[in-house]
Protein: TBC1 domain family member 9B
Organism: Hucho hucho
Amino acid sequence: MEQLATIAMRQLLDNEGFAADRTLPKACKTDLDARAKNERYRALFRLTPDERLDGHTDCTLWTPFAKMHIVGQLFVSNNYICFCSREEDLCQLIIPLREVSIVEKADSSSVLPCPVSISTKNKMTFLFANLKDRDFLVQRISDFLQRTPDKLWGDSHPLALSGYSVSQLEGMCVSPSPTTTPLSSSLPTPTGAGGEPSQGRHYSPSLPTATQGLLRIYQKDDPEDHGPKATKEKMKEESWNIHFFEFGRGVCMYRTSKTRELVLNGIPESLRGELWLLFSGAQNEMATHPGYYAELVEQAMGRCTLATEEIERDLHRSMPEHHAFQNEMGIAALRRVLTAYACRNPGIGYCQAMNIVTSVLLLYCTEEEAFWLLVALCERMLPDYYNTRVVGALVDQGVFEELTRECLPLLYEHMQELGVISTISLSWFLTLFLSVMPFDSAVLLVDCFFYEGIKVIFQVALAVLHANMDTLLGCTDEGEAMTILGRYLDNVVNKQTVSPPIPHLHALLTSGDEPPPEIDVFQLIKSSYDKFGSLRADVIEQMRFKQRLKVIQSLEDTAKRSVVRAIMTDSAFSIEELEELYVLFKAKHIMSCYWGASCTAAERHDPSLPYLEQYRIDLEQFCQLFGALGTWLCGTHTVTLAARHFRLLDSNKDGLINFKEFVTGLSGMYHGDMTEKLKLLYKLHLPPGKQRKTQLFSVIAIRIQCNIVMSVSEVKDYKYYLRMWAKEKEPKIETIKDLPRMNQEQFIELCKTLYNMFSEDPLEQELYHAIATVASLLLRIGEVGKKFTNNGAKKPTDTTNTQAPTLAAELPQPEKEESNGESSSGQSLVCKALAEAQLETPPQQTSDEEVKDDTSVSSYSMVSTGSLQCEDIADDTVLIGCAGDQQRRGSTLDGDWSITFEQVLASMLTEPPLVDYFEKKGDIQARMATCKMQRGVERQVSSSSDHELAQLST
């Protein structure tokens, strides 16, 4: 369950859950275990995310530096052979297959049973022994070597060097499995201007690049320093050279506890870039993708995106105190690296603090090396740190609070009251202390970070709090505590640096009566290992898992609050009701992604949109929510009414509505007064696009007017046209006079909707009688209005259509209607009112989609008024009041008949039952509770159905 939860959280954090491949088999325990092993393997050896572990076995490794065999495990994957000793920090080894020249079985002996020898291009030989299945291991390594691209080998292939013939090589080829996809397949392919993949591109001669670290370039003019600091630096370089001679140099170097000691003592500036690449694993990616950075730069430079605008804004804020970034060369190099990464990973693009870290990388590395180090930081070593929500930093902030509670319980209680931990830790982790500590001191922490990982940042952070514990316990507010910690970090110095001192920006802004004592950064690092060195990377990962749950919940709560705040002024619902509606709305969308049959939900989820636009529902999901939450339920007619409501809310006509549009529709039904509710019902029965045409005509009229003004007068100032454009964009306040007139067919549909709405009301008989009276009145009003809508002249009667009687001839007199009302039920009065404007049934539609949203009169069956008793008529039956079959077959709608909304409203106000019905407020709380219960049942049924289908298919 923990593995499943981890996968689900990763999908939520990375926004990949909606893009899941439904064709893949469902996860089982074996698959989950394999996934967990792959993640541990990649994290242990700093490998790329697409590296797949093929297998591992116990073995021993001969270490020439210690003249002994070390017990551990051998790991084999599609691109690497790795070894890790059973005893922590004793020995670790990474051998890329691209570096392997010979793989062979050595002679066995009682001292060295079942050995395998692996030689590399740089003349290093590794001897593994005590292998249980040596033949199988050699065969698997040979298979992976055969799949390695030929361009990485140079003049010879390692299998050919090991004694295999060409025919044997061809017979040894194995078709690659889906789990051994080359790394390059997971990288975005740069394309040229025409959209075709670019092949063999190189840097343009006119493209300036930093071919070495900026620190070396700007230190050339400095006089050579022969003081004790330079001597100390030379001693460090010599120590590393001795280490390289004894343990090897490059990616295949033996990594032991001696290596860590040298890192903690400080990496020489001349070797810093090389070792950063080695320890982070960036060297492997750079070696397997030659020219990739150049292609990205050529593709990305010159483009204008949101990421490039943010990069330009922050370029001059990146270490402005360092002279390397006070000129165009350093700024241009930083621009190219950040822009190239934004092009490679548009999901991250650019995030604040990336500029600070990248500027430090450029001081010691070339542009391409800095780019691959940035890839390692953002995608492996600090996952989810650099994005719009800094999710990874929030997770580690929670981990740091938990570690503070365990290691410094007294200080934790006091700091929680002040709220300091959450404030300070975010800047510490995002920039690896580079923004809060002098550069020469912070860069030593970066050395340790690339070797040890995030655990060293936690250790140093705890050591800083421990060193200031007594002072912090005496603080009374957050500002005082922040000042104490800020001054402490400003005075962490590196007394061994050979670079000229760089004034720290925070130190320049900090003032005090007495300067605080200096703290040696080496003593701070040593103290962190002495006091908190027991922290383990696997323990931190478990703590991260727990914190991700809290971070996800916090982010979801923040999104919910943001959406509710954005629409609360436009809705009459309370904040609590809006929050519950948001949960239901989002749940309906997400359930369609995992339990629905269609995949449209995955396509329409765009996490880059604002919170209000991220989750949208289509017509089918809206109909389900409308049936559960709506107050105007019409039985079988509910789907039709919901479709009309959806069409009205979908203002941009993309087939989707967001949460604000959804709440707007519900708010009118629940909290609107009688006028607003009738206005909504009236608009639901107008033809689609009617109002859009009216708005279009008004815009065209304004533009024509502008053209006329331009033609008859002098050209206006640009501000005039900006005001005209802003005026067009302003939302128009719609009044009841702006509503178009309703024709006879639309009026019939409105009567049908009201008829179905009243069918389950306790006062249905009174409502039927009232709506019948109103319908008859409006029919007569429409007849009278024909005289005025036709400019006061009545159209001549069409003598050719003798079978189409006018509605006026069939309208009952008020006296007759009143006498019939005494002997008939309210339902029969509605039938008579509808019958006065009914027409013959057209041919029946056969399309499922047309029938589903059929709002025409033909969707209702019709019979003669005298053939059936009204109480025996079904809800979807409408009676025709005709004198005979001949008239019934020839009935047509009156195209001149129409009424306005004011007339509908005035007629409704004459009937108290209708006024009471539409003034009644609905209770959405009860409906939401019922909807939640129904949702739980739907999920159980959906899961059971999927399982049963799977069983039947097998």
